[in-house]
Write a structure and sequence with these properties.
The complex is a heterodimer. By secondary structure, chain A is mainly alpha-helical. Chain A has a domain of 65 residues. Chain A has four helices and no strands. The radius of gyration of chain A is 18 Å and the shape is elongated. By secondary structure, chain B is an alpha+beta fold. Chain B folds into two domains: 101 residues, Beta-grasp domain (Ubiquitin-like (UB roll)); 131 residues, Orthogonal Bundle (Fumarate Reductase Iron-sulfur Protein, Chain B, domain 2), CATH 1.10.1060. In chain B, the strands form two sheets. Chain B has a five-stranded mixed beta sheet with strand order 2-1-5-3-4. In chain B, strands 6-7 form a two-stranded antiparallel ribbon. The longest helix of chain B has 20 residues. The model of chain B has no long low-confidence stretch (mean pLDDT 96). The chains are: A mainly alpha, B alpha+beta. At the A-B interface, helix 1 and helix 3 of A face helix 7 and helix 9 of B.
Chain lengths: 125, 238
């Protein structure tokens, strides 16, 4: 057997792994706090005031906000994109470099949008 | 003695257009293995039944078959654990030569592709010394009997026969982790390719069916980490 071409999979696998950790560690807490407890009125409303949240996101020169977006939106997006891409292979359903571009491209585009909106919010005032 | 109903897949490429299931009634007790039952059929019912076997004690890895759709060693699987028809077919994902005999050529090619032997420039006659800690690093992965059950369990090998597969990648890890070996650089190109460690999507069924509890899925994931490290190092090399 000749030497096969090196796969670029380590890049996507690293993003997938990091996204998996974020999915398991940060998302459940965020969903519980922002998606369940807050709408049900079980959180002290002063905790989630706009001004207070904004100052939290802006702390550390805005890195806290960017890190939160990265951990809760960007990396999980790449995790999901990787799963969908390989799921297409398992289902024998259009697995190709085009679907690879579509999956990771969508994850990258949505990540950029999320980071842009976060940055916009942080720099707003 | 209890009567067990066996449905055995028969296929003779010289006479049959396609495989068919043939029913046999086999007497057995709580010690009768699937291999015992197959040998009973061959010796008492139909001498033309083709099967591969040798040691009868889960060492040789020859008697792998699908039992009710799960890859098993015939000698390590007992009729007492089944209460209705027992369907016995050749190992999945391999080409069938005759009845329960499959063509293992590709499997063996994958094993040899990862250079499964000690590679070093040592030419002395003194014994290699190895501490128990150094041995423990690879010992688990060295117990493979090359039965091929993990390839029958692996959906990725089923979809893509070019995928090196669980046993070959486990064997690569076995030698890469051996303190007496310096051949990692020669093995990594195979693992780094899309048909190497990256062909795996961590289904994990290989580890479920392994009759030696090697945990090939763990070896493959370790190989992914090694390949990712190799990828990063390669970026800094001219």
């Amino acid at each position: 057997m000749s030497s096969p071409k090196r796969s670029d999979e380590p890049v996507w696998w690293a993003l997938f792994s990091a996204g998996g950790v974020c999915f398991a560690v940060f998302l459940p807490g965020s969903i519980l706090a922002l998606g369940i407890l807050w709408p049900l009125g079980l959180l002290n409303s002063s905790v989630l005031q706009y001004a207070q949240l904004l100052s939290l996101l802006q702390s550390g020169y805005g890195l806290t906000g960017l890190a939160f977006t990265g951990a809760v939106i960007c990396l999980p997006l790449f995790h999901a994109a990787h799963r969908i891409h390989h799921g297409l292979h398992d289902l024998k359903c259009g697995y190709s470099s085009a679907t690879k571009l579509l999956c990771y491209g969508l994850a990258a585009a949505l990540s950029m949008l999320a980071l842009y909106l976060t940055l916009h919010l942080i720099l707003a005032d | 003695m209890t009567d067990y109903q066996l449905l055995i897949q028969r296929y003779d490429p010289e006479h049959d257009n396609e495989p068919r299931l043939q029913r046999f009634t086999v007497p057995g007790d709580h010690t009768t293995s699937v291999l015992d039952a197959l040998l009973y059929v061959q010796q008492k019912r139909d001498v033309t039944l083709g099967l591969r076997w040798s040691c009868r004690m889960a060492i040789c890895g020859s008697c792998g078959v699908m039992v009710n759709g799960i890859p098993k060693l015939g000698c390590k699987t007992f009729l007492r654990d089944y209460h209705s028809d027992i369907t016995i077919e050749p190992l999945a994902h391999f080409a069938v030569e005759k009845d329960l005999i499959v063509d293992m050529t590709q499997f063996l090619a994958h094993l040899s592709a990862i250079k499964p032997y000690l590679i070093n420039d040592y030419s002395g006659t003194a014994l290699h010394k190895q501490t128990p800690t150094q041995l423990a690093k690879y010992q688990q992965f060295s117990n493979c009997i090359n039965c091929g059950l993990c390839y029958s369990a692996c959906p990725q090998f089923g979809l893509n026969p070019e995928f090196l597969g669980p046993a070959a990648i486990t064997l690569a890890q076995r030698y890469n982790l051996d303190s007496r070996d310096n051949g990692k650089a020669a093995r990594m190109p195979q693992l780094n390719g899309k048909n190497g460690a990256w062909g795996c999507t961590f289904v994990g069924f290989c580890s479920d069916v392994c009759p030696k509890q090697l945990d090939p899925a763990a070896a493959v994931n370790q190989a992914k980490v090694e390949s990712a490290k190799d990828f990063i190092i390669s970026m800094f090399k001219p």
